[in-house]
Amino acid sequence: MAHKVKINGETRELDVPEDMPLLWALRGELGMVGTKFGCGKGLCGACTVHVDGVATRSCSLPVGSVGDKEVTTIEALAETPVGRALQQAWLDEDVMQCGYCQAGQLMNATALLNRNPKPDTRQIDAAMSGNICRCACYGRIREAIAQVAEKGTANV
Amino acid sequence: MSETATSVKLNRRTLLKAGAVAGGGLFLSATMPFAARAAAGAAPEAGTLSAFVTIAPDNTITIVGKNPEIGQGIKTMLPMLIADELDADWDLVRIEQADFNPEKYGFQFAGGSFATPMNWIPMRQVGASARQMLLEAAAHHWGTAPSSLRTEKSRVIEPETGRSITYGELAAQAAKSSVPDPEKVRLKDPKDFTIIGRAIGGIDSPRIVKGEPIFGVDTQLPGMKYAAFERAPVFGARLVSADLAAAQAVPGVEDVFVLKGEDNPEGLIDGVAIVANSWWTANKAREQLKIEWDNGQWASHSSEKYDAKARELMQGSPAKTLASDGDVDAAFSGAAKVLEAEYAYPFLAHVAMEPMNCTALCHDDGKMELWAPTQIPQSGHGGVAKMLNLPPEKVIVHLTRMGGGFGRRLSNDFMHQAAAIAAKKPGTPIQLIWSREDDVRSDFYRPAGWHRLRAALDDSGKLAGIDGHFVTFETGGEVPMPASMDGSEFPAKFVPNMRYGQSSIDTRVPMGSLRAPRSNAIAFVLQSFLDEIAHEQGRDLPALMLELLAGREKLPDAKTPFGVQPGFDPARATAVINKALAMSDWKAGAPSGRGKGFGFYFSHLGYFAEVVEASVSAKGQVQPHHVWAAGDVGSHIINPHGAMNQAQGAIIDGLGQAMALAVNIEGGAVSQSNFHDYQLPRITMVPRIEVEFVKSDNPPTGLGEPALPPVIPALTNAIFAATGKRVRSLPIDRSLLG
């Protein structure tokens, strides 16, 4: 059955079973492989996308339940000032080791700063605690988010 | 690293004389195949100065990164070594990932913290050789002597006249000259380094933050299908029969078939492959499979039974002596006080974030092409060729960036599976992906282990002897490297009378190297027991350590079947211990309600001393607050960004293992399945971490591993300092602390 889903501002047609998780439709059907598979159970956050701006685990979101909500993925993160600022902070802090979880970390961090532009360390930790980084780049993730919270997004 | 890695047969033409020693030591003599171009007999390509360096007319330099990238930063770091000796303008450097080609690039693998010591000289020689070729080309161009010229930022300069020319303008000419003997090119005086020592961000990071396809599982080929592989839950089980009809009937499923393997988990094991138009469909169809397995004797195995057996064995005599110095029996018969303790630690899984996967295409002529996230392509390449009965040149392996490794991808079972599936579907690219459950339940686990330790203190309270009995695992009569202990671990040779014995239990649980293999467990045991001894003596562990090390000479280099392993150097150990004590203001003790603990370990040629400050809540919840680490990995920190990330990551990794991780065997299979019951550390646990490097006059060595082992005893010793309760079993059991 074909589903119409709004992804990164474009309406895409997905001819997949309605219970197929959005993650596999993005990766397999649309070739948008920036969103990562980590656990398939909503436990690690690697597959995080935005659904109407809310950080959502795409591995546990059936395509049939997206409806007319707007999906944003890592591929379109640079289109917002907060997304761009975080990408730059990630590079400035040299956050990553393997980098596999970082798309999910960035999507979740962007959702955090969109709803709370000035989080303190405790709020950063609470918001980011659903995202696993197996390489444990956590200190730098914290720093990069704090850097954007402090400097804002005016210069990006 | 794994046994597989150490037994890799190297092609003589690579002239690579590097040998890996079980447990992480190595000897360092390697010569890179500079003459690859000539050896291949191909006409020189414009601007290609060697297998590693190509310079375009616009002055961009393409440098090949030869080793697999698992997040350790090697794709950035090895080219830095080349670029510095080449006097390249780093802003104009592009880095390309090498495919698997040992004749061209030498040994290509990621493990054992080997890359730095093995490549420190050879990669610099690559850069210096290319620089010399450019100097000669410039001298030819100007009709002057190379000795009158110097280089800087991708230009050759004649100081006398002030004229200069870019490498790009010279490269075509330089490529025609012969490659200098790498042993004869002059390397820079370290004071002239401009790139080595500079904090440089990961070369792939700008692509990663945009979500570009870069990892193995991101490989996309036209017409690609997806595969899942169902194996027996019980290790060692064989497939008897399978009813595939229901799975075959799931819409979107293309094919379902049985693969009969061999009785070796490193290669192809028995299972059922499902090929479908999406991985989700393939994985759904798995639920419809009805497979009969023959578990043999193995379904009766469990962690509980292993523990009971180990406790029984520890009371008896060891089956084998690992080390024996002095007269241990006399030390104990004359002892004024004997301390005794039993330590234990569990199986652990690697759980790299990117689940195991491999993409394979069987070409019409039978050639097998693989896109493989592997830490050791050589063994996967050889294994696949043997399995499919193909000559080596008919197996092509592309190296992809990996979402973590930690030693898991030193075993290439997934490459065998992908190739076996693709071989049945010629012309169709197949991407095999494992679920997280497959990954947790089909690993090569850090072996569990048990140690019974006794210490003899004489009348004056001095440590007179240690007697240890290690119980580990064997498979088919062999104790694999990660489950072994060589008896030379500190404090061996520093305690006058010391004996260590070993017994082993038969298992079919696959065992492998997890970051800092052996050391990640043994550091906990030995540094905790020394902390117990120090406490009994009325002092702290650093005081005991410094006394044992004082005035002692460096131990002789050890000859092993693989080469020479540099001996343990007490002066380097002493320096990092003193540094960590100063950094942590050790003498000041811990704030009220907290404890400070210390741990030291020498592994993978790196010396690390660490202090953890932690608290324990009334309910037994452990929280590390602050970690101070001092490490000596030689004369240079090549990329401070990457170095700090490795050290901090290893420290959090070790804390996470100690606090929460265990794989349990029940009914011959793994009980855990995903991140809800294998709980990795999260951002909320992460303490403040300070790392400092103590530079010493030694060649640089690796950083993937040595920062991990000492943090575990530093944490458990901190718990003792805070609560008076001794942690002798991992993971830390909160119920014993609350």
What would your notes on this structure say?
The complex is a heterodimer of chains A (156) and B (738). With 156 residues, chain A is α+β, with helices and mostly antiparallel strands. Chain A has 2 domains: 2-75, Beta-grasp domain (Ubiquitin-like (UB roll), Roll); 80-151, Orthogonal Bundle (DNA polymerase, domain 1). Chain A contains 5 helices and 5 strands. Chain A has helices at 22-29, 81-92, 102-115, 121-128, 138-151; strands spanning 2-7, 10-15, 48-51, 54-57, 70-72. In chain A, strands 2-1-5-3-4 form a 5-stranded mixed beta sheet, sandwiched between helices. The longest helix of chain A has 14 residues, at 102-115. With 738 residues, chain B is an alpha+beta fold. Chain B folds into 3 domains: 3-208, Aldehyde oxidase/xanthine dehydrogenase, molybdopterin binding domain (Aldehyde Oxidoreductase, domain 4, 2-Layer Sandwich), CATH 3.30.365.10; 219-296 and 356-433, 2-Layer Sandwich (Aldehyde Oxidoreductase, domain 4); 303-348 and 445-736, Aldehyde oxidase/xanthine dehydrogenase, molybdopterin binding domain (Aldehyde Oxidoreductase, domain 4). In chain B, 27% of the residues lie in helices and 23% in strands. In chain B, helix 15 (519-536) crosses helix 16 (541-549) and helix 18 (640-660) packs across helix 19. Chains A and B meet through helix 1, helix 2, helix 3, helix 4 and helix 5 of A and helix 7, helix 9 and helix 18 of B.
